[in-house]
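Friendly challenge for the regulars: who can give me the structure tokens for this chain first? No prize, just bragging rights.
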Amino acid sequence: MASNSTLRKSRNEDRISGLPDAILSHILSFSSTREAVKTSILSHRWRNVWASVLNLDFNEYDYYLAHVFRTLPQPVRYESDWFAQFVNHVLLSRCPGNIHRFRLRTIEMTNVFLIDAWVSTAIKHNVVELVLSLGGPRLPDFEIPRCLFLCKTLVSLKLGLHKNIRAVTPPSHCFPCLKLLHVTFCFPDSHTVEKLFSFFPVLEDLIIDGEYEYASAFNLVVSAPKLKRLQISFIVRKFAMRPAANHSEDYENYGCQIFVSADAPNLLELDIYYDFLVSYSLKNAKCLRKAKIGFLDVKDLENRDYFLGLADRIFQLFADICNVRYLTVSAPIFAALDIRYHSLLLTFSNLNHLELQLQTCLCLQSLTTLLKISPNLEHLKILPKREHLYVNEYNYCDDDDEDEPEHGWDAPESVPVCLISHLKTICLWEFKGCPNEVEVAKYLVKHGKTLNKVTIYNHFSEDKEMEIQSPSALRSKFSKFPRGSKTCKIQFQTII
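First reply, four minutes later:
Bragging rights claimed.
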């Protein structure tokens, strides 16, 4: 049996400090550099462990908050030079080896020469992942170092660019090894936007998002022969509707000045949050398998007649993605299309999975159009989508709202081909049981000749006035529906 002294010694033993330096450095790589440096005061063993960490994370905002809390209750004015001194100390004191990930976020920095030097240092040390979020009210004009675009070790790059930051790319040999690029703009310089995406020889993932003023005008061309996934979310801040110059009752029109074009022959997935003042076009997108078209601001629909060329832009986008197998689409976007365009939409011959996201149940009419142009559809999911939509979620089933962008459900004059020969599963998510929803469900169950399963998800409610939402009430209703398929099973799931 072990003695008491042996047991005490076992309890007091510092096993972590006994680990090899490589393992300790790896553990510290998951914390910020500021926290890693603090470990140097733990003991003699830990004094220089942080200096061999391969990941450097400098966040001026965290540094600022730490300063505020440290000086409470009478905070001392923060100086960005303190953060700069810390970064300089770390870069000068660390081991001379490579840097794997370098993350820099500034909020008050004004010394652009230091920022340039820090980024250049990371590149000289063969950085693989680089995250730069540069900005703040006091940052003067800054040009991203040219060596960044020529770095041969950089695989992942995330950039946060404000209007006073420019990126002047070399004419050739840019980003030779870059596979992931995520750029967030905030009222950027148009020249930077146009030049930054000129050519990526091996890029596979591209994410572009940001905010723009209505006066912004640029033509963004993405050229990436190996691009597989593209995600874009542009928000254009629009001026308030102004009366037209002729003093009539009309308002000035919005003109589209932002054009995005992607030449990506190997593109597999596309994700766009649509803004009425952005035009999208895809070239050589024959490999596209999955597309998601979201919609940012439903309030724009109220003034859709003032967006010049809007219907043409939406029509072109759907023409470019007509070969997809998986499609997620926000239903209100069809409200911007004149009914004449619905019949001109190209057939989605390869579409197998469709997810329709609704603003309200009154948007269900767009389902008619989508069923008609999807003859080989096998799986259908209908659900409300309230993210990024500036609407009152409690009006989801308000049939009396005269301002809705679509009218209620009208059954197609002829049964869509997919219902007769291909549709196998239907999922109705957050089903509330309002009249339009019930009519749609009844129609699909009646005419779905090949249906195997219909799943209805609804929220549990103890409100007696909302009895139609209860699973028992819905089950009773659905049991009376005529069924086009003898093998169709209807299941009910309660969302708690």
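The radius of gyration is 29 Å. Residues 80-93 form the longest helix (14 residues). Your move, everyone else.
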